[in-house]
Structure prediction request, 239 residues.
Amino acid sequence: MFKQLILVLRSALFYVGYVLATIVMSFIFILLFPLMSPRRRHGFAAAWCKSILAWLRLSCGVNYEITGTDNLLEQPAVYLSNHQSSWETLLFYSLIFPISPILKMELLKIPFWGWALRLLKPIAIDRSKPREAARSLLLQGEQRLNEGNSIIIFPEGSRSEPGTIRKFSRGGASLAVAADVPIVPIVHNAGYTWPARQFIKYPGTVSVVVGQTIQINGRSVNELTETVEQWTREQFVSR
Prediction:
């Protein structure tokens, strides 16, 4: 009972800092982003992501270790990762440059925060309309890749429970084939420390693995999707 209370208090402390930092940074984003170059915009947003991860480590004892950072590319690529929480979105934005995040269209409507997000060249999709979202992903994604930005996609479609990997959709591989860019797979187990749709954050170390580049080389969308999903399942670190 006492341990559970401590977890609740530490998680509450994290969210207080998280919300305050987000409000402050949103105001700064709106004021300064129009005057910044894309590189500076990303650097500023990445600094916010790193600060939240550092605060999470300090308040809740959540750390992480990454294997394979040398597999991150300087050229545009499609990064495919499993999806378990909001944690990985913070890490990936601080880890990959330049990158266009994929997000729900309704997030852009949030006062201040949504306005700041628009300046990061996101790919906004309407998840209530799957077919339209798929077309929008291909259209906007190919445009961003041609502009030199990488894309991070969660082919499971939604957040999975700790210890599980959902079946991968073909959207990420389809985009990579259409834009003729390589795929870089990533796997992690953040769900054990930051479970989806739960308030409490649990102390521990998140394991992150960045895989080797997968070149298109005329391979089919189905083959690429199966290759990435199989690698993800093999590399997944459970507890």
The domain at 2-235 is CATH 3.40.1130 (Glycerol-3-phosphate (1)-acyltransferase). The chain is about 45% helix and 15% strand. The mean pLDDT is 88.
